[in-house]
Amino acid sequence: MLNTVKSKAEELFAATQKEDKQALNEKENAWQQRMEHTARLRALRLTKEAADKEDDG
Question: What is the DSSP secondary-structure string of 2-30?
């Protein structure tokens, strides 16, 4: 009986750990995508500013 309860608890713990790891991976992927998007927008803005400065100057 004790082994069964312990085994079930270990299974639940392992499942929880797996879910936590998946959630963390998803969160990290979302963060990475936001950073890449921000970098792309920054590059576009800087390019536009340089072009505008060249037209004015």
Answer: HHHHHHHHHHHHHHHHHHHHHHHHHHHHH
